[in-house]
Design goal:
alpha+beta, Aminopeptidase, five-stranded mixed sheet, 5 strands, about 30% helix, globular
């Protein structure tokens, strides 16, 4: 693994299970929205927001790029361990920036798991700045 041509493109609904499998095998912390129906809803409701990297038809990377009219947000920049340090994350990030820019975005925020050293190292080496004062608060909502 780790070789071959990498393609970056928007995910399609049928690829939700493969994306979820990527997140699991890559050690991403799973949350209440990390399931096939939620990923399918993202792909169907916000086309082009979930980008994937593929190699020989295998999903080896992902990033979610959203824009709410005010700011772009980046989530789930994940790369299969066999494909790390090959430029996949950087390519996904640049394409995600293009998605947000095309939708009118001028500022991006990235949600990064602070207890994942490789993720933190990637963002520290990037041209993104770590905000010195912001902290994230969240709450899971029960379905109605």
């Amino acid at each position: 693994m780790g070789g071959g041509e990498i393609t970056i493109r928007a995910a399609v609904t049928d690829e939700a299970p493969g994306v979820l499998a990527l997140w699991r095998r890559s050690g991403a912390t799973m949350s209440s929205t990390d399931d096939v129906p939620s990923i399918a809803a993202l792909v169907d409701g916000w086309p082009g927001s979930l980008l994937i990297a593929t190699s020989a038809a295998e999903i080896v990377g992902s990033i979610i790029a959203t824009f709410d009219g005010w700011r772009g947000n980046l989530y789930r920049l994940v790369v299969d361990p066999a494909f790390r340090r090959t430029g996949v994350a950087s390519r996904l990030l640049r394409e995600a920036e293009n998605v947000v820019r095309a939708r009118g975005g001028r500022r991006l925020s990235a949600l990064v798991e602070s207890d994942h050293p490789l993720a933190v190292a990637f963002w520290l080496a990037s041209d993104y700045e770590k905000h010195p004062a912001l902290v994230r608060y969240y709450r899971n909502l029960e379905p109605r």
